[in-house]
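Input record, target 12 of the design panel.
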């Protein structure tokens, strides 16, 4: 095994461009994805159609202007003007204040404010609708209470519930804190599979695979030797991505670094063995690269809960997602980074990663044994 590992190390050192790419690519990926991917909804472009022109309507408009979630880009004088701005993708929201808004508000009746949304992006529109409704309802309640106080009807006032909001784990509600830990799992899966996916395929193309299999090396020693050479590169990549997440993106790390690195190494072993399995099945480096990319990136991106909530997927897709290790490692990463939990909570996910690595290793050994036979 040590001889195979030394052979792979020499090959890595003789190809400095591939070595630089193997170390630089994860760092570039987390920078690119970390800055480009965001689920935050703020600075929503909006336009106002104010038919009331009252102090109350102007105050409502100022509430939208003072919110970080909206950016008022001007006013409109008709519904048609709002529709044209939405058609030209200049705004996403049109706020329509009717003529009797202030009168209804101060008389105790429920005022009507119309919100015209561009529903092309349904997720953003739904979130923005909640923000806009909150501003309108809070302002209406505030003015109605003030009006009742001025009329001396304080005994009839029903105070609203004083809801005290406390966000436990991601107190700033930044999507970056949710995305970056998942990015670490995504990148490690891709890099781990790609690092080893070309090893055996390269041996087949160079005609040295038969010589390697004819040596006294056992299949397990071949697999472990090739994996261990790239394991060190993978650990360096893991440390780089963790450092970028903590120091560059300022993601809170509330858990144990030892537990984080240990589970990352366990996940990395499974990813590396998966790349070796792909390499054993494919006889060309091009085919091995394509299969490794397809089987690592798509499941890790779509079925891990990295961005898309697995609970919202159809039941058959949820069942299929259980066979991919990235789902469990992303859960571990978010638990360690955001919740600060450890083995006492995440032991099921850790056991699955160990089981996955062992099963893939056994399949690789069986495949190599068939090659020898």
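The sequence produced for target 12 reads:
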């Amino acid at each position: 095994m040590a001889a195979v590992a030394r052979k792979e190390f020499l090959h890595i050192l003789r190809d400095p461009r591939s070595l630089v790419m193997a170390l630089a690519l994860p760092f570039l990926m987390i920078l690119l994805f970390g800055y480009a991917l965001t689920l935050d909804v703020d600075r929503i472009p909006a336009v106002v159609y104010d038919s009331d022109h009252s102090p109350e309507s102007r105050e409502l408009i100022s509430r939208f202007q003072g919110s970080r979630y909206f950016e008022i880009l001007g006013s409109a004088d008709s519904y048609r003007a709002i529709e044209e701005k939405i058609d030209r993708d200049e705004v996403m929201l049109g706020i329509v204040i009717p003529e009797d808004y202030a009168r209804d508000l101060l008389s105790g009746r429920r005022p009507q404010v119309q919100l015209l949304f561009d529903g092309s992006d349904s997720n953003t529109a739904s979130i923005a609708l909640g923000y806009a409704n909150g501003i309108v309802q809070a302002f209406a309640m505030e003015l109605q209470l003030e009006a009742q106080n001025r009329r001396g009807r304080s005994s009839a006032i029903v105070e609203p519930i004083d809801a005290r909001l406390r966000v436990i784990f991601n107190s700033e509600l930044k999507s970056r804190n949710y995305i970056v830990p998942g990015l670490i799992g995504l990148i490690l899966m891709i890099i781990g599979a790609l690092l080893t996916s070309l090893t055996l395929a390269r041996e087949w193309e160079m005609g040295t695979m038969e010589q390697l299999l004819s040596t006294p090396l056992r299949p397990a020693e071949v697999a472990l030797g090739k994996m261990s050479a790239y394991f060190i590169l993978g650990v360096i990549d893991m440390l780089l991505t963790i450092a970028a997440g903590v120091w560059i993106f300022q993601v809170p790390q509330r858990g144990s670094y030892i537990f984080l690195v240990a589970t990352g190494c366990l996940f990395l072993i499974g990813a590396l063995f998966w790349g070796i399995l792909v390499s054993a099945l494919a006889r060309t480096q091009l085919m091995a690269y394509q299969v490794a990319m397809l089987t690592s990136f798509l499941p890790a991106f779509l079925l891990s809960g990295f961005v898309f909530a697995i609970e919202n997927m159809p039941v058959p897709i949820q069942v299929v997602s259980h066979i991919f290790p990235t789902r469990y490692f992303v859960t571990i990463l978010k638990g360690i980074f955001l919740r600060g939990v450890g083995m006492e909570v995440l032991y099921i996910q850790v056991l699955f990663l160990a089981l996955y690595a062992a099963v893939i290793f056994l399949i690789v050994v069986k495949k190599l044994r068939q090659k020898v036979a």
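The chain has two domains: 2-38+174-372, 44-156.
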